[in-house]
Amino acid sequence: MIIRQPSTAADFAAYYALRYQVLRQPWQQPPGSERADDDEVAATHHIMAVADDGMVIGVARLHPSEKNQVQVRAVAVHPDWHGRGVGLQLMTYLEETAAAQGFTECILHARESAVAFYRKLGYTVVAPSHTLFGVIPHFLMRKLLAS
Ligand SMILES: CC(C)(COP(=O)(O)OP(=O)(O)OC[C@H]1O[C@@H](n2cnc3c(N)ncnc32)[C@H](O)[C@@H]1OP(=O)(O)O)[C@@H](O)C(=O)NCCC(=O)NCCS
């Protein structure tokens, strides 16, 4: 498995397809709902995990949110690959990328079901945040990045 940035149209198609499959389709959201307004902004950094057979098995994105702070969004691992270290590798890659650019803090809004995953990675809960689709509670979490 490797982590890399999507670059071709085919890469981005697979990237958004996995984001949709994991984060939107189970809640009957329409195709296209997986896209964010700032996905195509230059400062938004997209990455994907690619298995040895070429399949895209994980995706995530990062953007600067405040001074010295980045935000991670839309982390999704293919269900067949849960619990095999893909999420950890995606997050490590994003955190190292941000730290190398001088950012000192990373925040995210975690689904309730993913809070324990982010805790394992060193994030702490700051406060409850929004409830997605009326049924998925989220929690604002933060982590100081190693310099
Ligand atoms: C949450 C998610 C990104 C985790 O990715 P993953 O590849 O399954 O996680 P990893 O295998 O890298 O797990 C790293 C560690 O966290 C643990 N972990 C992973 N998911 C967990 C969870 N939901 N609850 C508790 N622990 C979890 C793993 O057991 C592992 O611990 P270990 O090192 O002690 O064995 C993935 O399960 C997913 O895509 N879920 C659905 C979408 C989602 O919730 N995305 C996050 C939106 S905020």
TrEMBL record:
Protein name: GCN5-related N-acetyltransferase
Organism: Hymenobacter roseosalivarius DSM 11622
Annotated GO MF terms: acyltransferase activity, transferring groups other than amino-acyl groups
Residues in N-acetyltransferase domain copies: 1-146
Keywords linked to the UniProt accession: Acyltransferase, Transferase
Pfam families from the UniProt entry: Acetyltransf_1
Gene3D superfamilies the record matches: 3.40.630.30
